[in-house]
Amino acid sequence: MRKERVLVAMSGGVDSSVAAALLVEQGYDVVGATMKLFCHGDDVPDRPCCSLDSINDARRVCQQLGVPHYVLNLESAFGHDVVDDFVSEYARGRTPIPCVRCNTFTKFRDLVRKADAIDATWVATGHYARVADGRLRRGVDHAKDQSYFLWGIDRAVLSRMLLPVGAQTKAETRAVARRLGLEIIADKVESQDICFVPDGDHTKIIRQKLGSDAPALRTGPFVLSSGTVIGEHEGYARFTIGQRRGLPGGFPQPMFVVAIRPADRAVVIGPREELLGRGLIAREVNWLTEVDSASLLGTRLGVQVRHRAPPVAAEVIRAEAGEIELALDEPVSAITPGQSVVFYDGDGVLGGGVIEAARGQRASLPVLAA
Amino acid sequence: MPDPIYLDHAATTPVRPEVLEAMAPFYGPRFGNPSSLHRWGREARTALDEARERLAACIGARADEMCFTSGGTEADNIAILGAWRARKADGRNAVVSTPIEHKAVLGAVHQAAKEGAEERLCNVTQAGTVDAQSFNKLTRPDVAVVSVMWVNNEIGTIQPVEDLVATAKANGALFHTDAVQAFGKIEVDARTVAFDALSLSGHKIGAPKGCGAMFVRRGTALESLFHGGTQERGKRPGTENVAAAVGLALAAELACAERETECARLLALREQLEAGIRARVPDAVIHGAAAPRRAPHIVNVSVPGTDSESMLMALDLQGIGCSAGSACQSGTASPSHVLSAIGAPRELINAAIRMSLGSMSTSESIDRVVEVFARLVDKARRLAVA
Question: Are B331 and A72 a contacting pair at CB < 8 A?
Fold first, then answer.
């Protein structure tokens, strides 16, 4: 007997293709869909998630699997929720993660509505993550773990998510692709770039949306923390905290971007020590487990401030109205406004938020009046 | 699941068995190239000539006025671009058309504009017909060619071609009409309406995809798009698709012979469909319903609070095939330029579903369509509130 219907988000890549194939094997009523999120026209060579080649690959995989395939036009919503946010974050001197916003708003909200429209009980993707025991958890392949990007989804969606490749390694996924004869995608090259940024130049889209005279794209000073101006840059949107590339030379020690100040278009640079943060503030906090806000104070979590960073122990020293302040047990380098901080409990994802600011000195719990 | 229901005849139609049968010999023993001197060639030439005569007769044209093409798009392109290119040297640089044309016409018009033409698109009414006043203002002695479709493919409204032709001719402009949706549904006669060029498409009338024809009135100068041989009087070089020409001619004859009875049948089905929808979904909007004349086979309906894409998928998964707007190459349904042009509100544009009737449509299937459509509308509304 056939299991319930599942809408599978298919980018044309090997992970989502194998996810769909595994679900077919497991007896689900699979419907494949590729989201059209933006339009470059025909003049951009193969890029994931929109290009005709990718859509065609997803379509052909579905043909091979014998399941329907649709292309969903989510351009307008994506433009608003992901692209506009991307541009405005850079304008504010921050470094966004568009994939987080896409997961939060497009894949696990807008796509879920489409699933409802076609009576699909489940929504599936090719993410390397798992839902187990009602909790979102890391993927089994730690090198590919994508749980970091899912902190923002609505908790209610967890009970409708199927993540078929999360319990295996990437190598196993490719092996499945070959076993199932999905030659079209088995050896496809992975892209690490942002899907809507052709050729990797993110300033192009900023220029498109805000104009070439946008403050983030205009020249400005390189300054030291002391305030000394030591050079000129071509636009603070080209920089992110912790960056070494593109900085003026001539210093005895390695120098890094330690802050971006849109007010005077300054890019602040400093040595390694100035990159270290001992605390952080995050906003837009989202919880994927039952949380009692009253008892959050003093709670200890494992936090990651980057996709690839190892988790660091931290303590909640303030939590209110979607904002959280953490004190980190050990200093962490390059805590970047706009990036995500994700709270872990072993391999379980507790939640996360958008980093607002780093704190240099370790703060502590406010001392309560006796 | 019950039998699937095809409601997208305006997109394409199945090849009629008689048409397939008539074409078969030309893939077999009668395979010759009409340009060849020998008996194989003569036989093919005869078949082609006969097909041409028979097709011409269907629209009151003369055989030498019919030119076989690869379909409606090609015919639109030759007629519009070819006419403009041939006439711009005479000081006629403008092209007049409408914003509700098929993309093949608009594409050709835009290309002419790229080459230096002055593109003029007249206004259309909310009911989906050409605003005659606007058209008359734009059609002046500096116009090379005018193109107005006879029946709109998205909303089925019939344009007042007879009147528009008169204005064009009075100003010395060539008049082209895309009759792809009109042929077989309304009377198309070159003896009573003075159009200079006209496009036909085979796969809308039970002939194969990839074949069509263009009517070009004697004395009309057109530059060809293709260069090469002398076939089709030099207007369309390339070895003729004899099988397709034979198939198209038969399909056209059948369509003409059946036109009155089939249109009456389709009209009844359309009325059943519209009445059914209105009864179950009182606030459904049928685009073009207010037009003075409508083709019998097209219903373009929007239900506020729904979206086309979700409805189309849900209908498909229930076995019912419809369409919406114009599909871009990626396969998504983009908002309809026709509905935008007639001033339909955004909410309705995003909800539009086109249902088009034809040979496969029956009264029972219409009942099921109404039932499923109404149920999906209810669900969409419940989800929207949730």
Answer: no
Interchain proximity A117–B310, CB inside 8 Å: yes
Provide the chain A residues 83-122 that lie in CB contact (below 8 A) with chain B: 113-114, 116-119
Which residues 283-312 of chain B have a CB within 8 Å of chain A?
A: 307, 309-311
Q: Which of A109, A154, A104, A161 is nearest to A131 (CA)?
A: A161
In the DSSP assignment, the letter for residue A250 is -
pLDDT digits (tens, 9 = 90+) for B158-209: 999 999 999 999 999 999 999 999 999 999 999 999 999 999 999 999 999 9
Mean pLDDT to the nearest integer, B129-142: 97
- Nearest by CB to residue B380, choosing from A55, A73, A117, is A117
SS3 A290: coil
What is the spatial distance between Cα A164 and Cα A122, in angstroms, rounded to a whole number? 12
Please give the interface size between A and B, counted as residue pairs whose CB atoms are below 8 Å apart: 47
* Exposure string for B25-44, b = 16+ CB within 10 A, e = fewer: ebeeebebebeeeeeeeebb
Distance CA A211, CA A344 (A): 40
CB proximity B347 to A under 8 Å: no
Rounded to an integer, the average pLDDT of B49-75 is 97
* Residue A364 CB partners (closer than 8 Å, separation 6+): A317, A327
Least confident of B51-60, B212-221, B227-236: B227-236
Distance CA A53, CA B374 (A): 37
A175 interface with B at CB cutoff 8 Å: no
Inform me whether the pLDDT recorded for A45 exceeds 50: no
B211 in active site = no
Report the C-alpha dihedral over residues B4, B8, B11, B14, rounded to 10 degrees. 50
> What pTM was computed for the model?
0.90
How far apart are the C-alpha atoms of B289 and A104, rounded to whole Å? 42
Percentage above 70 pLDDT, chain A: 94
- Specify the DSSP element, H or E, that contains A176: helix A170-179
Query: Any residues with CB less than 8 A from the CB of A358 and at least 6 apart, and which?
Result: A277, A279, A280, A335, A336, A337
> Which residues of chain A are within 8 Å of residue B350 when distances are taken between CB atoms?
none
Could you report the predicted ipTM of this complex, rounded to two decimals?
0.87
Phi, psi angle pair for A234, to nearest 5°: -100, 25
Q: How far is A176 from A153, CA to CA, in rounded Å?
A: 28
Beta A348-359 vs A276-287: how paired, if at all? antiparallel
Element (H, E) at A116: helix A111-117
Do B383 and A113 count as a contact with CB atoms less than 8 A apart?
yes
Going across the sheet that includes B174-178, the strands are B66-69, B212-216, B197-201, B174-178, B143-147, B94-97, B118-121
Could you give the CA distance from residue B386 to residue B374 in angstroms, rounded to a whole number?
19
Instruction: Tell me, yes or no, if B334 comes closer than 8 A to chain A by beta carbon.
Output: yes
